[in-house]
Structure to design on (203 residues):
């Protein structure tokens, strides 16, 4: 489904992800090149210069506001664009991702990372999701983790470490499912406890 945008005409959204505090972190946009350029520029302009400070997706059937999404500091937003083939059903369109760079780089300083997947093509691949989640936890962990620890650690600590943003007040809109991985202060202590008790071993 494509959602209209209240602030600008000729812009359509198929996915939007918000941080736990509600700020924009990812936007998947379709539109003519000029309209997409105008959107990106508007995010960086001051209010007096015609800039916008929120994105408001609208239900295409009812026109109802789905959410008012604050942009926050636009300096953290990057964009990546590609042009659709000219012979597509809708004509000469650009597809652009506007995103916070934190989506790409797990932060050991904060012990947190993002995991974004496509609801249609990836959401039901449990093995792949578990593998990607474990890879991020390995990158964030202050302690070395062995591959065969994955099942036990995720089984015991998964609910504490992985937050499904669908179950928050700022759930994603559209086709992207988002999870936030955050190591708790007690993570290292828990891993050490599993090793001490023999639940985790070298073999």
């Amino acid at each position: 489904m494509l959602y209209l945008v209240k602030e600008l005409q000729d812009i359509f959204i198929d996915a939007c992800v918000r941080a736990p505090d509600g700020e924009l972190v990812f936007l998947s946009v379709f539109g003519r090149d000029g309209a997409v350029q105008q959107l990106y520029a508007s995010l960086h302009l001051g209010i007096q210069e015609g800039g916008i400070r929120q994105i408001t997706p609208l239900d295409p059937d009812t026109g109802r506001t789905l959410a008012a999404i604050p942009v926050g500091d636009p300096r953290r937003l990057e964009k990546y664009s590609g042009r659709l083939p000219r012979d597509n059903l809708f004509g000469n369109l650009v597809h652009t991702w506007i995103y916070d760079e934190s989506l790409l780089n797990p932060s050991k300083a904060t012990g947190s990372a993002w995991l974004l997947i496509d609801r249609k093509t990836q959401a039901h691949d449990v093995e792949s999701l578990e593998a990607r989640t474990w890879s991020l936890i390995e990158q964030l962990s202050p302690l070395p983790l062995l591959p065969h620890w994955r099942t036990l650690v995720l089984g015991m600590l998964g609910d504490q470490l992985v937050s499904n943003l669908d179950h928050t007040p700022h759930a994603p809109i559209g086709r992207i499912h988002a999870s936030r991985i955050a190591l708790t202060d007690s993570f290292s202590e828990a891993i050490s406890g599993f090793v001490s008790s023999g639940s985790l071993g070298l073999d």
Summary: The two ends are 48 Å apart (CA to CA). The chain has two domains: 3-103, 112-197. The mean pLDDT is 90.
